[in-house]
Every structure is written in structure tokens, then in C-alpha cells.
Specification:
The structure is a single chain. By secondary structure, this protein is α/β, with parallel strands linked by helices. It is 30% helix and 18% strand. The chain contains ten helices and 15 strands. It has an eleven-stranded mixed β-sheet, sandwiched between helices. A four-stranded parallel β-sheet has the order 12-15-13-14. The structure holds threonylcarbamoyladenylate and magnesium ion. Threonylcarbamoyladenylate binds next to strand 5, strand 6 and strand 10.
């Protein structure tokens, strides 16, 4: 494990089939050459990720995406507005798609995203490699939003961390299935349902427990090592209160002014900071279930299950 800003070293490692943790505007990803079976297998084993849970492939542009998947009008409409950005498309794999089948985990679709971080865009362009990259945390744990978070997850692993500073959005991309008649949000994220409906009004949220087509959504996820309790109005004995809005008792606050974007950006870093043996649990104050609050509550619900 090594933190660095050396983009040439990162390219050399990726070309050799080795792993590099990359910064994106959402969270850090654990990246490998998506066309190299060995590299993709290495991502699964380093993360301890179950092999039925497919990976997102990162590309530098829509043009590159079109080489890998069967593009359609919905993809074009969303890409024009939201790419590069925090929106992942599920589309059919193109015939002769060069991406490792392992990345699709046996599905005939591929998750694809054009991320917005300048350093990673440079890496994608200069390496000419599509990069498979799940969030750079051990499976089931809290996603990393700082290079140091990644370092603490992979202390004993052979990875390089490309330091691109703190992730601006702090929460994963929205995953939208574009293989059906109407776009279906499989994972809520920083781009909200309302924003998507402004472009394609027929876009819907997948029903919980219903049409789960994102295998990763079934897992225990985002779990700190101590319990987490939602909708807490105050901390009980021994708990650390994670505030939202005005909260005198809070140890940390997601957003004192009650701003949901700011709360999303702080969520994972604050969860990590409060994940200490000196606390019995993390008690999180209520987050309004609107806009990006839907994604925040989705992550908190999963963390609370862990
Ligand atoms: O913001 C993000 O999306 C970050 C950065 C690094 O890009 N990546 C990320 O990857 O969150 P990961 O692996 O932690 O989450 C990917 C999600 C999982 O829920 C997975 O099941 C789903 O996308 N997914 C991947 N390929 C899929 C496919 N072909 N069909 C349906 N769901 C898919
Ligand atoms: Mg993840």
C-alpha cells in the first residue's frame, strides 16, 4: 500500500494488471484493467467481494462507452446532461465487448460510468484502458472519501493509491438500468430521481425487495464496526450523536445548516470518524427523505443492518 500522485506509476501498474485506488467525485474506487481477467479477479479477491456482484467500468467519454455497450436514446439523453458525472448506466454488453466477463458477474449487461475527477480522467485517457472499479473498501464496509481511508482499508495489500484529495460528492453514483422500456433507478445516489425525471419523466425508482437487478443491493453494506441507529432525537448513554441541522449534543454534524448535499459529502467520513471502540453506537439524527436525502437514508439503513 502506497499513497502517491504519480500518474505515470499508476499507468504502469494498471498496464501490468496491478491495482490502483483512484479518486472520483463520488468515492475512491479500487481500479484494475477491465479487459484483463487477472486484474479483475484481483479486485474481487482484494476486496473480499462475492463474485456474483458485478463491477462498474469507468471510461473517459460517451464515445468510449459506445465501444463497450449497446447504446440507446435514453443513454444519450442522460449522458448529454450528466456525464462526466455521478450516474452509472446499465446497458447490454456489445457483441465482442472486450471487458472481462468477470466484471459483469455472469450478467449480459455492463455497468458503465464516465467519472468527473480530473486526475482519473487523465488516467483513463493516457492509459487507454477502461477501468473496472468498485468502491475502494473491503466488502460490506464504509466507502472511502479520502486517500487515507483507502490506506486504512488495504494496509497489507499490494495497491497504489492515487491521491486526488477529498471526494467532493462523498456518496456513490446513482445506478440506472437502461435496458428496459423505462429507466429504473437501481441504486439511489447523488443524482436524484427528480433530476433524472427532468430529462426523462418516465424514470422510476426500483421497488425495494421487488425488481432487484443490482446484486450488490442485497448485501449488508456500509457497516461501521459499532452499531448504528437512525432517526435518533438524542444520544443514549455511551452513544456518539451524528447531527443534522441544529444539534448541541452532536459529536459531529453532517450539516449544521441542514444542507443535504453537504451532509452527503460528510456522511462516510463522519461515520468513519465516529467508528471508535469508546462509543457504544452511532446515533444519527433524522435526515429528510427528499432529494439526495433518499440516498443518504438508503446508506444509513444498510449501515444500521450491519
Ligand atoms: O460512485 C460509484 O459508483 C463508485 C465509484 C468508484 O465509481 N463505485 C461503486 O461501485 O460504488 P460498487 O461496486 O461499490 O457498486 C456498484 C453497484 C453495485 O450495487 C452493483 O451490484 C451494481 O452497481 N452493478 C454493477 N454492475 C451491474 C449490472 N451489470 N447490473 C446491475 N447492477 C450492477
Ligand atoms: Mg461499494
Amino acid at each position: 500500500m502506497k499513497i502517491s500522485t504519480d500518474i505515470e506509476a499508476a499507468i504502469a501498474r494498471l498496464k501490468a494488471g496491478q491495482l490502483v485506488a483512484i479518486p472520483t467525485e463520488t468515492v475512491y474506487g479500487l481500479a484494475g484493467d477491465a479487459t484483463n481477467d487477472r486484474a479483475v479477479a484481483n479486485i474481487f479477491s482484494t476486496k473480499h467481494r462475492p463474485d456474483f456482484n458485478p463491477l462498474i467500468v469507468h471510461v473517459p467519454s460517451s464515445e468510449q462507452a459506445k465501444q463497450l455497450v449497446v447504446w440507446n436514446d435514453d443513454a444519450e439523453a442522460f449522458a448529454r446532461v450528466f456525464w462526466p458525472g455521478a450516474l452509472t448506466f446499465i446497458l447490454p454488453r456489445a457483441t465482442n465487448c472486450p471487458i472481462s466477463l468477470l466484471a459483469s458477474a455472469g450478467l449480459d449487461t455492463l455497468a458503465i460510468r464516465n467519472p468527473a475527477h480530473p486526475l482519473t480522467l487523465q488516467l483513463l485517457v493516457r492509459s487507454s484502458l477502461p477501468l473496472a472499479a468498485p468502491s475502494a473498501n473491503k466488502s460490506g464496509r464504509v466507502s472511502p472519501t479520502k486517500a487515507q481511508h483507502v490506506a486504512s482499508e488495504f494496509v497489507y495489500d499490494d495497491i497504489m493509491i492515487l491521491d486526488g484529495g477529498d471526494c467532493k460528492m462523498g456518496l456513490e453514483s446513482t445506478v440506472v438500468d437502461l435496458t428496459t422500456d423505462t429507466p429504473l433507478v437501481l441504486r439511489p445516489g447523488v443524482i436524484t430521481l427528480e433530476q433524472l425525471q427532468e430529462i426523462l419523466p418516465q424514470t422510476k425508482m426500483a421497488k425495494a425487495g421487488g425488481d432487484i437487478k443490482s446484486p450488490g443491493m442485497l448485501e449488508k453494506h456500509y457497516a461501521p464496526t459499532i452499531p448504528l441507529r437512525m432517526n435518533a432525537l438524542q444520544a443514549e448513554e455511551g452513544e456518539a450523536l451524528l447531527g443534522f441541522g441544529r444539534a448541541e449534543q452532536a459529536v459531529l454534524n453532517l450539516s449544521e445548516k441542514g444542507d443535504l448535499q453537504e451532509a452527503a459529502a460528510n456522511l462516510f467520513a463522519h461515520m468513519r470518524a465516529l467508528d471508535k471502540p469508546e462509543y457504544k453506537a452511532i446515533a444519527v439524527m433524522p435526515i429528510p427523505n427528499e432529494g439526495v436525502g433518499v440516498a443518504i437514508n438508503d446508506r444509513l439503513k444498510r449501515a444500521a443492518q450491519g
